[in-house]
């Protein structure tokens, strides 16, 4: 294949190639020769022999001062005047090479030496970089199986689109290297893990200040999935691992897919059976180029039983004590069991949740029970909940259907008329569905999530009344400098692209939540089926469950309808041109709970906060002002979940 350019300057192209080789090699001195300057192994503590003053545009000045070769000799103890003069003769070429890596191929460089300052004086460097070179074109050529395989057309287009992102941008060595690595990564992520860069050329037109990029990718033979091999499984059934790999789409004969391999690894880790999981496709074991490659899953098993004691607190509920017990393989059943006791200032909880291993279709049985006691003002609700159903979980979508029994008793210490007799019970059939399309977790920059739960049931007791219930929630992120397309960029494609550059303007976050319970006004619905809101994760500026239906004694009771909306501007904090792990936030929340949809008087909270992207997820600190109570509240929250 012949690569041509309309205006090719041979000498400039050779210069660019030499520049790339120069930057790709570690800076080291040549073999000493006659008149060469010896290089000390450690001269950082020696006094300065000469000073360097460099005059150049701001961004270039820091780059050149960091990489100019003269810097290596500033503290050389035995450097004399003649040796420095020889270094200054070579300095302009060194500076032009550095400027070429930033896209400036026609610079004016002046290097002079002036008396004063340190022993050998001051070196004054003036730089006029000239016009910046722009990337005028970026072409990708394919060889190997991908060049003729019809099923790979979408993948070819994805690679070409990635290379075209550089067109119109300033040329730099870093951008050129990044484009090559990103296009290769896109190719190796699906179907062709053995792909390589067969040829690449950055053709510089110094006259037109344009760069023409050419990349040839050799895909090699496609790789298809073979058997699953599990290493390290002793206590827990390895068939669960094999099943999860198949459910991720890596069935025998399927094309290699890095994203599906990562999904399988995450599914296996989420089971809780293993403290560490590493999955890969063994290309060496495949032997022949067209032989299936086995999927190898290396695991380290978690303890069979575990007890965790915890102490903590929250701005919602004050100090907290907890004890958790986990058994990963119950006798006879083989199910997992997780039991928990949690004591807080206003809430006490005793719960147990059991789940079966995943089945061939991806579903698994689960059951659970909980006893709870929560206090809100003068109201204390004691409740029992039992459930049985099946669930199917994946990184992008969760589904669940279950039967649920609720029983609750409310005691109001101020007004006996607001108390119940303990016979408020109900049974319901429910279906829940959650859809996630976030670009990266647990620190999403764009994308959205949608959750929906529908239920139908009847009250129990002397008089039975049917009811319908529904809950919906939405969370979306919109980067301000990437346009509306960011809402759906991750929803319609699974291209394994690199993360987009962070936005200096930040992003907008919109959270919506709603719920409704439809029943006869005389139906005695358990309070646990009704709604309260307010607190760290709903309407800030209000306490936990402070928003409900107002009562005669000044307290609030759960209602049949709920709506919550939250709007945030999340902006990263930059320092010295580098994005830090901190973000600033401005927000406004509003929420309402009512028994009459026509009665709408939302409670509003506004405020500001900080986010810290910690290893365990976002750490949130917010200061909110509730317009209703007219007071400030501090809210803390850790992690991201949807």
Tell me the layout of helices and strands.
Blueprint (H helix, E strand, L loop, with lengths): L9 H15 L26 E5 L2 H10 L13 H21 L6 E7 L7 E7 L5 E10 L9 H12 L8 H17 L6 E10 L4 E9 L6 E7 L6 H10 L10 H13 L3 E8 L11 E9 L3 E10 L3 E10 L8 E9 L2 E9 L8 E13 L2 E15 L3 E16 L11 E15 L8 E14 L5 E14 L27 E13 L29 E2 L5 E2 L3 E15 L2 E17 L8 E12 L2 E10 L4 E8 L4
Parallel strand pairs: 1-3, 4-6, 7-9
Antiparallel strand pairs: 2-3, 5-6, 8-9, 10-11, 11-12, 12-13, 13-14, 14-15, 15-16, 16-17, 17-18, 18-19, 19-20, 20-23, 21-22, 23-24, 24-25, 25-26, 26-27
Helix pairs in contact: 1-3, 4-5, 6-7
Strand order within the widest sheet? 10-11-12-13-14-15-16-17-18-19-20-23-24-25-26-27
Tally of alpha and pi helices: 7
Radius of gyration: 33 Å
Largest sheet: 16 strands, antiparallel
Task: Choose one word for the global shape.
Answer: globular
CATH architecture classification name of the largest domain: Beta Barrel
Helix content: 10-25%
As a percent range, the share of strand residues is 35-45%
Poorly predicted runs of 5 or more residues: 1-43, 484-499
Mean pLDDT level: 86
SS-derived structural category: alpha+beta
Corresponding CATH superfamily of the largest domain: membrane protein fhac: a member of the omp85/tpsb transporter family
How many DSSP-defined strands? 27
Number of domains: 4
The N- to C-terminal Cα distance equals 51 Å
- Described by its quaternary structure, the protein is single chain
Which fold name fills CATH's third level, the topology of the largest domain? Porin
Q: Output the CATH class name of the largest domain.
A: Mainly Beta
């Amino acid at each position: 294949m012949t690569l041509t350019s309309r205006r090719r300057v041979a000498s400039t192209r050779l210069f660019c190639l030499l520049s790339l080789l120069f930057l790709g090699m570690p800076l080291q001195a040549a073999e000493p020769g006659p008149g060469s300057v010896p290089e000390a192994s450690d001269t950082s503590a020696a006094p300065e022999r000469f000073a360097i003053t460099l005059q150049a545009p701001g961004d270039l000045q820091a780059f050149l001062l960091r990489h100019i070769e003269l810097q290596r000799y500033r503290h050389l103890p035995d450097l004399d005047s003649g040796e420095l003069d020889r270094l200054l003769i070579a300095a302009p070429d060194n500076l032009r090479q550095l400027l070429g890596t930033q896209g400036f191929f026609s610079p004016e460089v002046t290097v002079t030496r002036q008396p004063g300052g340190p022993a050998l004086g001051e070196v004054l460097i003036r730089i006029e970089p000239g016009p910046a070179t722009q990337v005028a074109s970026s072409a990708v050529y394919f060889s190997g199986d991908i060049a003729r395989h019809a099923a790979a057309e979408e993948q070819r287009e994805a690679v070409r689109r990635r290379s075209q992102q550089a067109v119109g941008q300033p040329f730099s060595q870093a951008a050129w290297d990044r484009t090559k690595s990103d296009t290769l990564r896109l190719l190796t992520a699906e179907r062709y893990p053995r792909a390589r860069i067969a040829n690449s050329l950055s053709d510089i037109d110094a006259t037109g200040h344009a760069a023409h990029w050419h990349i040839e990718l050799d895909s090699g033979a496609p790789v298809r999935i073979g058997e699953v091999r599990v290493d390290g499984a002793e206590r827990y059934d390895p068939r669960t691992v094999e099943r999860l790999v198949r459910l991720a789409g890596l069935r025998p004969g399927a094309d290699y897919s890095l994203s599906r391999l990562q999904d399988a690894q995450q599914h296996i880790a989420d089971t809780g059976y293993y403290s560490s999981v590493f999955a890969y496709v063994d290309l060496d074991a495949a032997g022949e180029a067209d032989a299936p490659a086995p999927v190898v899953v290396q695991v380290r098993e978690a303890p069979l039983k575990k007890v965790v004691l915890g102490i903590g607190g929250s701005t919602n509920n004050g100090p907290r004590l907890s004890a958790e017990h986990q058994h990963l393989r119950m006798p006879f059943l083989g199910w997992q069991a997780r039991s928990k006791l949690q004591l807080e200032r206003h809430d006490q909880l005793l719960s147990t949740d059991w789940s079966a291993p995943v089945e061939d279709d991806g579903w698994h049985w689960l059951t659970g029970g909980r006893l709870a006691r929560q206090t809100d003002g003068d109201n204390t609700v004691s409740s029992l909940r039992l459930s049985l159903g099946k669930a199917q979980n994946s990184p992008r979508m969760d589904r669940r259907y279950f039967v649920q029994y609720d029983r609750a008793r409310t005691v109001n210490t101020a007004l006996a008329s607001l108390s119940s007799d303990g016979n408020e019970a109900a049974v319901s059939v429910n279906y829940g569905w959650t859809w996630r399309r976030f670009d990266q977790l647990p620190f999403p920059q764009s994308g959205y999530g949608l959750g929906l739960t529908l239920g139908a049931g009847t009250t129990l007791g002397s008089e039975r009344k049917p009811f319908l219930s529904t809950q919906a929630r939405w969370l979306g992120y919109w980067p301000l400098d990437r346009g509306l397309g960011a809402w759906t960029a991750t929803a319609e494609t699974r291209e394994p692209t690199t993360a987009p550059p962070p936005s200096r303007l930040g992003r907008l976050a919109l959270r919506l939540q709603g719920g409704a319970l439809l029943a006869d006004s005389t139906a005695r619905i358990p309070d646990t089926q009704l709604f309260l809101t307010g607190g760290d994760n709903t309407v800030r500026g209000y306490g936990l469950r402070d928003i409900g239906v107002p009562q005669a004694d000044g307290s609030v009771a759960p209602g049949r309808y709920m709506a919550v909306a939250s709007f945030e501007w999340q902006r990263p904090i930059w320092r010295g041109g580098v994005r830090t792990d901190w973000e600033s936030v401005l927000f406004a929340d509003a929420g309402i709970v009512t028994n009459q949809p026509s009665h709408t008087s939302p409670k509003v909270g506004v405020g500001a906060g900080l986010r810290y992207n910690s290893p365990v997820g976002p750490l949130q600190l917010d200061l909110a002002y509730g317009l209703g109570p007219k007071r400030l509240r501090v809210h803390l929250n850790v992690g991201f979940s949807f």
